Amino acid sequence: MTKVTYIEHSGFMLETETATFLFDYYAGTIPKADPHKPFLVFVSHKHHDHYNPEIFELIKQYPDIQYILSKDIPIKWQLSKYREQGISLEEHIHAMHKNMVQDIMLSHGKSLTIETLKSTDAGVAYLITDNGKLYYHAGDLNLWIWEGESKQYNDNMTNAYFRELDKLKDKKIDVAFVPLDPRQEKDAFSGMESFLQYTDSKCVFPMHFWGNFDIICRFLAKNSEYKGKIMPIEHTMQEFIFN
User: Fold this and answer.
1) Residues linked to residue 13 through DSSP beta bridges, in sequence order
2) Is the per-residue pLDDT at 170 higher than 90?
3) C-alpha span between 182 and 219 (Å, rounded)
4) Phi and psi at residue 115, to the nearest 5°
5) Inter-axis angle of helices 151-168 and 190-198, to 10 degrees?
């Protein structure tokens, strides 16, 4: 069984048979996790709407925790703070940069593989292979086309986005978390549409929609072929369970 909880904005908890994954938490309530499973906390970059230092308090509840952090996350002060409390936080941290592949050993003797992509904004996106399943969290990797920007900027953005999508082409992704940002107005659907066309994704959760749940309905009204694949998030702390 797989359970996904939408926390807020780009924050999700993904619970599988083998591990718990927390992505880009910055606000809201973190659901309780199984203390007997490995707990992996991912942060894609340092922007305030993707990173909250409160995540480090989780080590007091879940000693079997590992933090997978983009290298732009400022952690020196956090390391010092927890060292004063007798907690060696650095032993639980993996710093990730773009275009990196790393195997992470888990406490039950198994491992998972994390691959990073270069964001079109800041930090990285994550592609995780665990127990035969493939999970993707985009962070701020998106087709950020803006009406007020120059043609050169938007052309460069388009090229950068599709360079990263090429790395995902035809991958069979079990669960994906992908931006759908209403601030882009007429271009708000472009990144999601391209992602769906390039990848073979079973289950896709829109994110980064700033509480505007209606954009998901509007996307599906325009792209009805993706009903059943795009998850209809309607409120925070909504749970989705898959067999």
Assistant:
1) 5, 22
2) no
3) 10
4) -115, 140
5) 30
Q: Which residue's structure tokens are 């275009």?
A: 99
pTM to 2 decimals? 0.97
Query: To which residue do tokens 């994954």 refer?
Result: 21
Cα–Cα distance measured from residue 174 to residue 172, given in angstroms and rounded to the nearest whole number? 6
Q: Exposed/middle/buried for 221, CB within 10 Å: 0-12, 13-18, 19+?
A: exposed
Phi, psi of 222 (to 5 degrees): -85, -30
What 8-state DSSP symbol labels residue 12? E
Q: Which residues of 25-60 are buried (b: 16+ CB within 10 A; e: fewer)?
A: bbeeebeebeeebbbbbbbbbbbebbbbeebbebbe
Mean pLDDT score, 140-163: 97
Q: Is residue 184 pLDDT above 90, yes or no?
A: yes
What's the pLDDT score for residue 172? 95
Residue 218: name the closest of 226, 178, 141, 7 by CA: 226
Among candidates 90, 242, 57, which has minimal Cα distance to 22? 57
Residue 186 CA to residue 223 CA, distance in Å, equals: 14
